């Protein structure tokens, strides 16, 4: 998985083909480090997503819309001022680097023609979107980089734009036999590292592919290459160069089972044993591959504080449970003290003054037993002492039994909140989880309008292969809502057995029974949206909704049931159609 120079070359090829000559119709900034340009050209409308996110920088065409802030950020307003309705003159990628330059023509306040450049740098945590004028002066950027952040290059309004510092790599277009002999083959490293460390735009994935095509083990040392292997390697590099020059791209995703493993703008022959799915454009590949990852990444970033709170509470609760369990184990001595007291009442008349122990027969099992005595006390006083110990341990046992039950319930509840954080898809889901943490005392309440926003968050909605509607709770509030307000008594309820997970409701509507396939699909959903989603198989309980009960003062999402069936199933939901609203 690499957003390398070759992938960007494929994106730039599509951008030139579709956008050159077009006009920028609308400009949005849905995230702090993200732009969405709506461009009209040849009676078509295109949406170009540009992200400078440190964890997932991207640039590709998208068909999806994103919610935008009510007030546009300053960078977005600046772009609207200068290049709204601007004409895209050219798009280029300097030297196969991970940089895209868009030259835009627009009219200034006086009606004169001006030119600006929007430069997109796709470079991991150093990614940026920079807006410069005709003289190369930075007007603004989506991220400001001062000399306190980077001593190498400042990116600030009023500064002259300079390209990111190079790493001594050459572009594929400069490839030559002389360079091959004097530079690449002199590297004291593996062939794979030598390739991606010497040629710009090539990732480790593509370097391995080149080695595979040349019949070379990418991990072998450069010095070990024979002359034939050297020739084959150079031939594959030239082939790659020619393929990029004529824009002979073949966008694809390689799947390992049902999971996307890698993507590329070129065919990956080294994965011949895996399934490869071709796409009509690299943007389709990127949108398919990264859509879910980008969403998950952003939600994880926004839920960092909640995760920390839940994780700390989980650790504290787990330690408390360990301590309580240890204390409960210590109370197991109570029965021994009770027997000591009873035996002293029976055999105490035989005890001499200052005797330190009593050896007698335990009439409960017929075995001989030794009872330690306090020589300063009488037999009855020793018996009372043991009965007192028994009574104290018994009370401790009873109290700890209640506390352990409460601690286990708290631990299960926190695990369910942690699971809800894992499956959250948007900020409204996080808001409901935050409200639950406030209600349960893990967070202090802030703000008054949270409940109003929570209404936007809805359960997952699926349609089974047999046409039955299936609903999955995203968090404990939704679980309670689904099970006790939304579902009817005859609707079917599914949940992963003895672990945190979502409540899954299958609406029966007018049907009296469910087909086996729908049972299995609902169980797969319950397994997937549970703590056991990474397990090969998960045991899932299912029963009619009428069999559920919620104990008084129970935590959100907690139910009890005694009549149920179970099945063991894989947590795989591929093929189950989701309804997005």
Strand content: 15-25%
Shape: elongated
Distance between the termini: 30 Å
What kind of sheet is the major sheet?
7 strands, antiparallel
> What is the alpha-carbon Rg in Å?
34 Å
Q: Helical content, roughly?
A: 25-40%
Task: State the total count of DSSP E strands.
Answer: 21
Helix/strand-derived category reads alpha+beta
Q: In order across it, which strands form the biggest sheet? A: 20-19-17-18-16-15-21
Low-confidence stretches: 449-454
Query: What is the tally of helical segments?
Result: 14
Mean pLDDT: 90
Summary tags:
alpha+beta; seven-stranded antiparallel sheet; 14 helices; 20% strand; five-stranded antiparallel sheet; 581 residues
Give a quick precis of the structure:
By secondary structure, the chain is of the alpha+beta class.
């Amino acid at each position: 998985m690499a957003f390398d120079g070759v992938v960007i070359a494929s994106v730039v090829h599509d951008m030139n083909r579709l956008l050159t000559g077009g006009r920028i119709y609308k400009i949005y900034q849905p995230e702090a480090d993200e732009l969405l340009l709506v461009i009209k050209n040849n009676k078509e409308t295109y949406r170009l997503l540009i992200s400078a996110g440190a964890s997932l920088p991207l640039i590709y065409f998208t068909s999806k819309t994103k919610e935008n802030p009510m007030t546009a950020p300053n960078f977005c307003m600046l772009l609207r001022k200068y290049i709204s309705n601007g004409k895209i003159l050219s798009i280029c990628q300097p030297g196969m680097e991970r940089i895209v330059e868009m030259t835009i023509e627009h009219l200034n306040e006086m009606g004169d023609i001006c030119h600006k450049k929007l430069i997109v740098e796709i470079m991991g945590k150093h990614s940026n979107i920079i807006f410069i004028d005709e003289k190369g002066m930075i007007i603004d950027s989506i991220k400001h980089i001062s000399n306190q952040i980077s001593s190498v290059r400042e990116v600030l309004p009023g500064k002259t734009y300079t390209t990111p510092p190079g790493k001594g790599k050459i572009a594929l277009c400069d490839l030559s036999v002389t360079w091959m002999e004097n530079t690449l083959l002199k590297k004291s490293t593996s062939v794979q590292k030598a390739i991606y460390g010497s040629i710009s735009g090539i990732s480790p994935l593509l370097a391995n592919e080149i080695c595979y095509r040349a019949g070379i083990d990418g991990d072998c040392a450069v010095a070990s290459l024979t002359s034939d292997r050297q020739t084959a390697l150079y031939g594959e590099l030239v082939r790659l160069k020619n393929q990029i020059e004529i824009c002979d791209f073949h966008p694809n995703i390689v799947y390992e089972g049902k999971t996307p493993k890698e993507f590329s703008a070129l065919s990956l022959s080294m994965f011949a044993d895996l399934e490869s799915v071709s796409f009509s454009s690299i943007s389709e590949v990127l949108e398919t591959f990264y859509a879910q990852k980008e969403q998950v990444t952003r939600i994880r970033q926004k839920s960092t504080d909640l995760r920390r709170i839940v994780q700390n509470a989980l650790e504290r609760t787990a330690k408390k449970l360990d301590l309580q369990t240890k204390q409960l184990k210590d109370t197991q001595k109570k029965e021994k003290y009770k027997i000591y007291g009873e035996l002293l009442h029976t055999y105490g008349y035989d005890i001499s003054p200052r005797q330190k122990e009593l050896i007698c027969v335990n009439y409960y099992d017929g075995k001989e037993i030794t009872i330690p005595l306090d020589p300063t006390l009488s037999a009855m006083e020793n018996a009372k002492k043991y009965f007192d110990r028994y009574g104290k341990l018994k009370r401790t046992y009873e109290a700890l039994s209640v506390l352990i039950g409460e601690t286990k319930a708290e631990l299960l509840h926190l695990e369910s909140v942690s699971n809800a954080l894992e499956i959250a898809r948007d900020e409204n889901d996080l808001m409901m989880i935050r409200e639950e943490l406030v209600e349960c005392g893990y967070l202090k309440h802030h703000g008054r309008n949270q409940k109003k926003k929570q209404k936007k968050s809805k359960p997952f909605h699926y349609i089974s292969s047999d046409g039955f509607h299936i609903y999955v709770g995203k968090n404990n509030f939704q679980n309670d809502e689904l099970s006790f307000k939304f579902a009817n008594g005859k609707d079917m309820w599914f949940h992963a057995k003895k672990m945190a997970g979502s409540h899954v409701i299958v609406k029966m509507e007018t049907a009296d029974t469910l087909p086996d396939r729908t049972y299995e699909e609902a169980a797969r959903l319950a397994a997937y949206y549970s703590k056991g989603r990474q397990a090969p198989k998960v045991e899932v309980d299912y029963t009619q909704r009428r069999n559920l009960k919620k104990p008084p003062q129970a935590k959100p999402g907690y139910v009890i049931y005694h009549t149920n069936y179970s099945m063991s199933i894989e947590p795989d939901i591929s093929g189950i159609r989701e309804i997005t609203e």
